[in-house]
Design goal:
By secondary structure, the chain is of the alpha/beta class. The chain contains 9 helices and 10 strands. The strands form 3 sheets. A 5-stranded parallel sheet has the order 1-2-3-4-5, sandwiched between helices. Strands 7-8-9 form a 3-stranded antiparallel sheet, with helices on one face. The chain binds iron/sulfur cluster (2 copies). The site of one iron/sulfur cluster (SF4) has 12 residues, from loops.
C-alpha cells in the first residue's frame, strides 16, 4: 500500500475511531512504524498565560530550546518511526523563539510526508516578516491558530494563508469551557479510569531524547518547581529512545495507563470560564 494511502487511512482512523481500535488498526496497517502524532516545546514560556494551561506554561521560566537538540531528538525518533502523522511545534508560544525558521528544513527533510503544524495564539503574527510566510510555504508548514479573546484578526490570517498557498487551521475557543485539570496531589485516583477518560493520551511529547505518552507528565516539573510540590514522574512514565527502540513496543506501551495517571482526573471533566492565570494552585490542582 502506498505511503500516502496509509497516511490518509490512519488520519481518518485518528479522527473517527476510538483509541483502542485506532491503535490496533494503526499497528496492522503501518506494521508498527507509524506514530500518529508528536509535539515538542520550542519554548516553555508563553506571552498569554491562560489559567488551566495543561503545559503549565504560566509557571515556566523563560526557555528557548536549542534547535540542534530538537533535531537530534527527531533523528533518534526517525530510527524508530519511519512515519509520523502530525508533528506539532508548540510551547508555550513557539513564535517567541528567535530561530523558529531554522527548524523547518531539518524537520521536513527527516519527515517529508508528515503534516508539520505550528500551534500559535496569534499574538506575534503581525510581527512576522515576509521570510516567515515564505518559509511556511517553502517547507509546507501549516499554521494553526487558536482563537483566544484577543483583538486579533484570525480569519484575516486564514485568508492570508489561503492566498499564499499555506495550510492554515483555526480553532475557536469556547470561552466558557476551559477544561480543568483537577490534579490529585495525593495520587489516589484510579489510573485505568483516568487513562480511559483522558483526552490528552494521544498528545505524545518529545523532549531530551525521551518520548512521553502525554504533555502533562513531562511538564509537571513547572508546577512542582513553582509551588514546591512533589508530583513524581516514574521511570516507566516515559520511553528513553536510547533504551527502547522498537516502534511496536512503544505503541503497545502507549496503550496502557502510566503511573502518573494516578494524579489525573478519573471522573467527569469539569470546566471554567476562560481567564488569564493568577498563578494559583487551584488552577491545576483540586482543593
Ligand atoms: S496560549 Fe496556549 S500555551 Fe499559552 S498559556 Fe494559553 S493555553 Fe498555554
Ligand atoms: S498521565 Fe495519564 S491520564 Fe494523565 S494526561 Fe497523561 S495519559 Fe492522560
Amino acid at each position: 500500500m502506498k505511503l500516502s494511502t496509509q497516511i490518509k487511512i490512519i488520519d481518518f482512523i485518528n479522527k473517527h475511531i476510538p483509541c483502542f481500535l485506532d491503535d490496533f488498526i494503526t499497528r496492522k496497517i503501518a506494521k508498527g512504524t507509524y506514530l500518529s502524532q508528536v509535539e515538542f516545546h520550542l519554548v516553555d514560556h508563553c506571552n498569554l498565560n491562560c489559567a488551566h494551561c495543561d503545559h503549565f506554561t504560566p509557571l515556566a521560566k523563560e526557555y528557548f530550546a536549542d534547535i540542534e537538540d530538537i533535531v537530534n531528538d527527531f533523528k533518534k525518533l526517525k530510527k524508530i518511526f519511519d512515519n509520523i502523522g502530525k508533528i506539532y511545534i508548540v510551547g508555550g508560544e513557539p513564535l517567541l523563539h528567535p530561530d523558529l525558521l531554522k527548524i523547518f528544513n531539518p524537520l521536513r527533510t527527516l519527515y517529508p510526508k508528515s503534516e508539520i503544524i505550528i500551534i500559535t495564539n496569534g499574538i506575534l503574527l503581525d510581527k512576522q516578516k515576509d521570510e516567515f510566510w515564505e518559509k511556511l510555504k517553502e517547507y509546507d508548514i501549516a499554521l494553526s491558530m487558536t482563537h483566544y479573546p484577543l483583538n486579533i484578526d484570525y480569519l484575516g490570517y486564514i485568508e492570508k494563508c489561503k492566498n499564499l498557498g499555506i495550510k492554515a487551521y483555526y480553532f475557536s475557543l469556547n470561552r466558557d469551557k476551559m477544561q480543568k485539570m483537577d490534579l490529585d496531589i495525593k495520587g489516589s485516583r484510579n489510573k485505568k479510569r483516568a487513562f480511559l477518560k483522558c483526552t490528552r493520551k494521544k498528545c505524545h511529547f518529545l523532549r531530551d531524547g525521551k518520548l512521553y505518552v502525554c504533555t502533562p507528565a513531562p511538564n509537571i516539573k513547572f508546577l512542582n518547581e513553582y509551588f514546591n510540590l512533589n508530583f513524581k514522574l516514574n521511570k516507566t512514565d516515559y520511553i528513553d529512545l536510547e533504551k527502547i527502540k522498537s516502534a511496536s513496543k512503544i505503541n503497545k506501551l502507549f496503550k496502557r495507563p502510566i503511573e502518573f495517571c494516578k494524579y489525573c482526573n478519573d471522573e467527569d471533566l469539569s470546566y471554567d470560564k476562560y481567564r488569564i492565570s493568577k498563578k494559583e494552585l487551584s488552577e491545576w490542582v483540586k482543593s
